[in-house]
Records
---
Amino acid sequence: MGEKRFMKGNEAIAEAAVRGGCRFFAGYPITPQNEIPEYLSWRLPEVGGAYVQGESEVASINMVYGASAMGTRAMTSSSGPGISLKAEGISYLAAAMLPALIVNISRGGPGLGSIQPAQSDYLQATKALGHGGFHAMVFAPNSAQEAVDLVYNAWDYAERDRNPVLVLMDGCLGNIMEEVELPPMKELSDEDIPEWSLSRRNGRDYQGNITPIYTEPILEGINMMSGEMYKAWEEDDVKVEEFLMDDAEYVVVAYGIASRVSKEAILRLREEGFKVGMIRPITLFPFPKKNLHDLDYDRVKAIIDVEMTIPAQMRDDIALQVMERAPIYEYGRSGGMLLDDDGVYEALKEIVTGGNDNG
Amino acid sequence: MAEYHRSDMLAAAPSGYCPGCLHSLATRLISDVITELGQQDNSLNVISVGCSALNLLYWSGDNLSVAHGRAPAAATGVKRTNPERLVFAYQGDGDLAAIGLAEIMSAANRGENFTVIFANNQTYGMTGGQMAPTTLIGQKTTTTVYGRDPATTGYPLKMCELISQLPAPAYVARFALNSPKGVREARAGIKKAFELQLAGKGFTFVELLTNCPTNWHLSPLDTLEYMNTNTMQYFVPGVYKDITAKEAQA
Amino acid sequence: MVVINDSLCKNCGYCVKFCPKHILEMGKTRNKRGHFYPVMTDTDKCITCAICAMMCPEGAIDVSEEKEG
């Protein structure tokens, strides 16, 4: 049994990262993620790691780039405006094939937006983390415990793929306190330092080059390799939860905080006899295409995209799989206005009773 | 009587630099010092963007190539996790004094224990000779075709003067590579910076005044004279900060 | 002894300019990259000061104290 603690989501992420082997963090203050750097500022030195408060998000992600190049498990965290600034460095991480964990505790946008929670960065996370046409695996936990589990193992994916991993979680989940069970510390030695890194602690005795710049035709080959990797993710790495889907006629699609609020509304509607279920993507990229594509559309009467942002951002990904076999509705709140049980319940009720023609 | 043998840290081929470019001389000097210090396998070159990136194919130590201006940030990540390494960032003036101004000043201010070697040739060489933050007043470039006008473009940034004002740096010095005397002093300065780093004394900064025959539209030999009469009048060579000088006095 | 690795030379002329004994000059033949490269006109006058090597951007000049032969 792991160790149980009552923690804020942000703190749970920080502790899980340390236990998952993180030994370097660089970041810049921004609400609502500040508990992550605050926690790591004292926690990392305890385990022989390094914490740096960067002069900007731009500098911070490049510090992570440097640490990662040495084979150190490195991370940064921020919120939407800061992730935009990190876009340069994330693109360079992908180009130089460097693993890293990037956490986005998202808030309302666009622009400076709001410091209140929102799910307004889905498109940025899944489609456009930076220039040049690349993807990172995107995890979207809906509880502190799930965040712990995903963060703890994030470097398994990042190092396997030599590619950054993004954890996208909104400010609600970052700040509510929940009981979490913490896994044991991963004890990594110099022998675990990847061979491709610029470290010499693993005994490497030949020259190493790590670069985000390639000459043709090498770059095209790198792009092709990335394309193959993204395809493999769809086969091997999709994480998804199906909730009451066996007989569902109305399918809610929601991730993160929206999935938790939706669950309450779905249970109320079930008590009233409405066959509502939910598909919850845990990986937003790779997106759980098959779960949506392979639904029995003779039974499914409607898809409802519930997100804490307006307009819904996941809708196009859903529509590509539904292929007009069912109407797609959307419901959301945004700009710091939170989804609540009653709001989601009433919106779903209107749809399942045929009162909504906003398909 | 003296000897000189080319370090095997350089590829056994000509550099990618233009004829007479002092980037290649600077690279050669660094390789000489690292070899003398026996740090070939321990050194790590953080390579910036610009002509300095040509070293990626020329430099046979460990190389980390990074985004434009971010070398001091990346070097921070390298050195904080691997303090035993001899880490140096090699940056040009556009990279260091324009897009990377926040990164260089902040790394210097934190006293990061690595060395930044700053090649200052007053132009963006790689992109074709645009105005740099260090371009001299009146100097013609592809974006200041009538000469740099301070009324709209400000004044050339003096990085040694700025950085030497900070409390943290251990060594800040500027040398000109256009004469045997300057080259000899630069070599000694680079060696001193590396030795201070290896002793854990903190941030060291060596500015090397270099040239750009191609974009200055001068022959290599004429660039050396231009440096005497123009560059070095504004960017005055010298040691701007040296914590060991204080120790020697005390 | 001064050995000029002509294959590295780019004909910048720095070695010729700074030789204190004025015994280096640009030769009349080109290397395979098309650059003229320096030749030493009077090896007996060389004091192996290595200034030529120190000023060579490419490290194309090797200087050792041993005598030629």
---
Amino acid sequence: MKKLLLTLLFINVLCIQNSLAGGFKIGLQGQKQLGMGHTGVGFAQDAATIYFNPAGMSFVGSQLNASLFTLLPSTSFLESNTNSLTHAVNQVFIPFSFYGNLKLSKKVNFGLGVYTPFGSGVLYPNDWTGRYILRSIELQVIYFQPSLSYRFSDAFSIGGGLVYAAGHVDLRKDIPVQGAAFAETAHAKLYGKGNGVGFNIGTYIKTEKVHLGLTYHSRVNMKVDKGDAIFENIPTALASNFPKNNTFKAELPLPSEIALGTSFKISKRTRFAADINYTFWKSFDSLGFDYEVNTSTLSDAKSPRLYKNAISLKGGLQYNATKAIQLRAGAFYDQTPVADGYVAPELPDNNKVGLTCGATFKILERLHIDCSILYESVAKRTQKNKETGLEGTFQTKAFAPGVGVTYLLQKRTYKRKRY
Amino acid sequence: MKNSIVACSILGLFLAFQSCKTNLKERDINAGSADFSRYVAVGNSLTSGFADGALSRSGQENSYPNMLATQFKLVGGGTFSIPYLDEGGGNDGSNNPGRILGFVLPCNSSTPALSPVLDPKGSTPLNNVSAFGPYNLVGVPGARAIDANLGLYSLLNPFLSRFCLTPAVSTILSEAMRVNATFFTLWLGNNDVLSYSLGGAVPPVNVLSPALSDTAQVRASIQTMLDSLTKNGAKGAIANVPDVTSVPFFTTIPWNGVVLTQGKADTLNALYTANGLGSITWKAGANGFLMVDSAAPPFMRHATASDLILLSTPGDSLKCGQWGVSPAKPLKDAYVLDQAEIATIQLYTARYNQSIAALATAYNVALVDMNSYLKTVKSGLIFNGINLNAVFVSVVHLSLDGVHPNARGYALVANEFLRSINLKYGAIIPLVDVTKYNGVLFP
């Protein structure tokens, strides 16, 4: 058994870990939680609860928790008309998280979370048929969340934190303009740094048998004030149409979300957790770039996205195999916020199903190693984009293992379990 | 035990990696009930790859028949022989090169403006390549449907005489028959209305003047062609005639291009009254060009929204030479299509297309409705993020002569043929990737 678990750990280290949840949300905020299908709103078992439900901090001892993920998505596109298959270039993304939870008094806990809940990235080959729509995009957002929780009783707490978000977006596409003096078509690069603020609040009820949690993540408006708009390979005749050193403004609303979770024992050693999330994607109705200098060919771009609110369902099991080893398994279903006719190369989204597993090895009394693996499949989706006319089938799969450490700052105060 | 665990783990790892890869596959393709092993393309300048006012090597390479032949090769098509010109600026039939986009100093400004100019590479001689025939691409710039079966025509047309077997004897049809084709595309009839329209619909003076071809003759000629081409069981596709008056050659210069101040209008009105032309008045703002009209009382009138001013009108004369403004310089009939002329041209086009549709049914070949398709392109078409529309000298599908498509436009034409062929013969032939072809090249 031990060998098998070591092998499992080996796989975790070798492979990489991640999940792209619905839209451009990334569901990779904790190792233990991911192992159970990314549940954790109603199951506070480590400092990652700062993200999942800040009220849960009251029921977790002082500890530090860090983890690293590597995301290896694989995306392909079959153009219906030309029957040509495009494989996006394989890329590695490294979402991460860090959480620290400190007991300030019997009633009050302070915590800090640094995590990456949103992001997206895809890079297509240079000559692919959609290059006038998108060559590549990279969106990365880091949340910093200082938090407090207050414990009213042994059974009830509330918690909340302020969110400061910082990130960048990098979008590249070709422009269907060919200069006689250039080997390649004109090309646009949009790069901007942005930031925004929000909050995260929750409440946690803990009874002997059942835990319940409710969390609300506010919307965060990421604003790019002065991004660089760089145009390359522009023919002299059109230089005034694509001014040099142009800048752009953009706004990306990262949607609010409400989550309800529960967990309960189903046997002496086994605990079940389930979450239901509802994300208000409707706020993402268009993606716009407002250029500082507009010309007859360079008008402010506003392309409709019309995302729909989406639900996701998650469930997972945790099994205390030995005193030192916990095993986990879980699954989730994520509804896509992207409507038919709006699936675009920047996010070839669809409903998705994920399977996860994970383990914790308590190698020292205070030092635990967590690991998890995710396999995710975004169902094939065939449609014609209403704005660009791109017609075909997108498919994405992701395989993602991850590893993390948890360090307990205080000795355990609870009674050791005996098996 | 230990070994089996290791073995299982390795296998598990392998399967895990395998299942993370996407498994999209190209669709199976096939020729349906058609046989593309020997394909011949018959037509006029549009079939030859004529663009930017001339036939050139790069135009021939980017011709729609060459694109079709490339796609046909995916489903059993054979070699496709093209009567190539040498590299260079091309040839318009009178030893002028094609046009490229360059800078020209307008008569009324000191800032150079973008305008089509003759290719500085110079013209390419029309080399004689008849010894290397037969050719699969029988596209003859200038050819009308009614010329296709005339032996004399191969002597008159330098584009045909350079590759046909025996000038004065060979015809467009006889050249096409040399390939012994299993599949053909036929697109003729455009020049039967186009040359007349390009000339401003001036009444023909003699037998060589551009004229609208007689509808019965056009039908008879196309019927003869289909008769011969299908004789050995070959299948094919025939395209109809687009509305020629919708191309930029006729739509670029606005009918109301005379923009005046009140003072200037007053001066003109005084001048017209003094010359006894008081019925023609000018106002501040946009005015229709003054044009010749034998039906109007003083034999001239303002152009209206129903008139089309041709791109052949000398631009500097319009801007600085008082053309269309001065009572002494009304635009001549050769530079304007009026409402009645447009109606006649469209009526003939419709009659040709009725014949073509009827013959397509009679000979059981695919009908490519270019007339309808190019109307949809004109109203704006988006292909994988590229906006295509019929605006002259922009990011579009038409070349610098304002009539012929550029490479990107010919790719759209090829796809329209493929759609009809796929439908008619139950074939699955992939379309051409339009994004791989250039539009207008900018300096």
---
Amino acid sequence: MGSYVPSTRSQQEEMLREAGFSSMEDLYRDIPDELKLKAPLNLPDGKSELETDRILKALAKENKEYLSIFRGAGAYRHYIPAIVQSVVNKEEFVTAYTPYQAEISQGVLQSIFEYQTMICELTGMDVANASVYDGAVAAAEAASMCRTPKKKKVYISAGVHPDTLQVVKTYCWAAQDEVVVLPLKDGKTDFSSVEAEGASCLILQQPNYLGIIEDARAAGECAHANGMTFVLSMDPFAMCLLPSPAEYGADIAIGEGQPLGMPLSYGGPYLGFMAATSKMMRKLPGRIVGETTDAEGNKAYVLTLQAREQHIRREKASSNICSNEALCAMTASVYLAAMGPDGMQEAARQCYSKSHYLAQQFERIGLKRMYEADFFQEFVTVCDNPQELLKKLDAKGILGGMPVEGGILWCVTEANTKEEIDALVKEVSA
Amino acid sequence: MKTPVELKYVKTHEWVRFTSDTECEVGLSDFAQDALGDLVFVNLPEVDAEAVKGETICDVESVKAVSDVYAPVSGTVTEINEELLDAPEKINEDPYGAWLFRLSDVHDTEDLVDAETYEKICAEEGN
Amino acid sequence: MKTLFDRSVAGRHCSILPPCDVDVQTPSETRQKALHLPELSETDISRHYTELAKQTFGVNDGFYPLGSCTMKYNPKINERAAALDGFANIHPTQDHAQGCLRLLHTAEQYLCEITGMNAMTFQPAAGAHGELTGLMLIKRYHEQNGHPERTKIIVPDSAHGTNPASSAMCGFTVVNIPSAEDGCVDLEKLREVCGEDTAGLMLTNPNTLGIFDRNIHEITEIVHAAGGLCYYDGANLNPVMGIVRPGDMGFDCIHLNLHKSFSTPHGGGGPGSGPVGCKAFLEPYLPGERIVEQDGAYAWQKRSEESIGAVRSFHGNFLVVVKAFTYLTTLGKQGVPEVAMNSVLNANYLKHKLEDTYELAHKGICMHEFVLTLEGLKKEIGVSAMDVAKALQDYGIHPPTMYFPLNVHEALMVEPTETESKETLDHVAEIFLDVWKKAHEDPEYLHGAPHHSPIKRPDEVKAARHPVLRIPLDD
């Protein structure tokens, strides 16, 4: 049986005696007997490390690992440089708590400060927080930032990730906000039904779930003309090639940070990033690190603007977030540092070029795109029986695109080679 | 502790300076700023907001606390002291100069007390 | 310390990507603003973070008695299991993921057994996220039963700030009730506030003073009799797992912090995992898809019509669940109560060593943690809880949680956890006593503490008054 209790049996007895207890059971003498478990828990026996290792490896083997992946749909496989894992596996970072004690947490605080800076640079916004749980929750938290007693209606594009749409609906149901879903027309969001009355914000995703590049600037203008805050959820690679959220006119820029160095991980841990104009700084949820000086005038970092947060404002806080995704934020920082500005822009260009190459090759074999509008790294082809095609690819060790209504949503990133793409096309046409 | 005699006070530690029969400025007393410690931000009300006597109208933040500011009288907010948004320390440095907001159509003034009474209230709280 | 941007040299880079192997294409509209990211070699990056690691204190660096955070040792086998390619490289929407499903399904069974619940969702990514989810279940329950007028959540004044904040986010009104002297629920006060508008009660047991509320059955009965539901905040589960179960105490739903009781690391502020468990009658309202088993094969089943929807994308922080599952596999039925008992033993042992010197907020047996109050010391010689906490840093131990719970003045909340040895606790007790002595000999020295850390006390007022939240960069 495995255990991480270091005290030996005789030490435990010594400690019990010294603290005035007759036995381990005696420690619980304040708990009424009728509440106590009468039999051991119905769990398996404990295991040695070797046995545990075998069990976990066997479970991992039950999953199918694909060498060739052409699916995104909210979780993207990019190449992860070796330095990323090496840095974020450092025990100090892994095993620290939230940096409440600034004097002995400067490392983690500085890493968050650097992360905030890089998110601001990517998005073009003024301020960023230390992260939220994922991109979907970032959208829900952004909607919450815009809520006022008189503005309780959220407009959201039907083109956001389906999970994002559902999470926003769930959070808004709880907060008694109305959610109005703006339909897609030819793959792009149709804003023509927007009305100013009571509207708090407009949430758009760029590129949208179907991979299409939206008219984000027009969306922003529509939002502002109707007195709404413009919330833009954007892929971090798309920001490096397409205009940044700030250039599109976003007031709040959010998104899923998983593509920045986090493996697919069957859906998590991921990273929700949030940035905003300085006007909205005090509405940002969660931890924020600021620079200051210490008692001797040296540069120092601390958690700041804490009076926004739940531990001080309690029921008046606009968000309850406490733990966030700090180590994932550090992962993103190390990833961005390793890629550098040129590497990020090159990766974005490759995602765009290679996905367009695949679309063109598909077209050549008669697989038509469902929408004409340009896309970033994902696109939908018309397909009557997606499951049949996906099954065929699966047999060849290829994870094909995501089945969507009437077709398949394909994704190509810099991690897919031309050879792989050509092989995919060959299998599809076979 | 300073309590200028020309001002009126309420027991929740706001001061009121009448600029006409129906208009006034509202701020936080010296006693209040001292108890709150270094203020780091002021969430001011919106212009045109209705102040209702005894109800929360805005709040002030220190590093580790948020404190509500209560409307000492009823009225309509006509102006807010935007200078404080960038320099909340003015409330600590000069509590009776650093007004938070101005009200018009002032009414419900029955809770106001004079400086002498207010000092007694503070003395009791201090114990 | 230089920042990543200070180290940047124009033109320097790592060589990560090969050249593009298809024709380069460009969208019609592109980014205009230059992209300022640091330009660094791999050596620069490696040394930078090694330097930052030296200025970060983790559980691996030393004793970390952060009360209410359960900073136990994070076993390495958990980390290695979660890093296996067969977990890390699995797409969340792929069909062939039987290993992931089996793991999630088994973890759900284990955790339901430990808590006395019938079903669990792993979508919530942290404790506060779990609270919000649990409250949503309560809200949906009352809606479905035709009682939308039940809008009040009762929260004791000693509760963590996330409890009232989560309630407010869920559209509830918070009713704060004062606790009795020992932090336990005042039954009379509870009866007074319970009524037809009561949606539910949120509680930790043991409470934030580390005391097990022995009236717990009566408490949950009062709330149930009034038509409300009972929510268990699992932050303090560590000392009672395998001993008592929230389900048996009368709770209807709970959240767990896998990054506390179940040994997954906290990563300097996340990722955590805050699974929410519930009794069968609440199961239809759970968010996300549910796993069903048929003949040894597992599948995701679409959520029910009554479900609250989703609180996160996909299936939550899956790799964190892998770590907790690995831990539970190691501990098994014997190891779980062993953890609980030793966490209580360690807390009581350390408390015993300190109680003749320091003043306790509450005397008597504690569970996993105890709270000291330095109010007397502060009045007597002006040394505060903050001063003592900072002085502890100079001895190479992490300070306890400061100024919480709010109903204790000058509080220091100490939670040693079960993974500390007797030798460590003996040594730590000496340190606490030494700090006490120093406080009396030279209070000024403590006001200036810490003296040996990378920085002295930071100016938090300056940071909040004039926020600098990013490195300024020239365009």
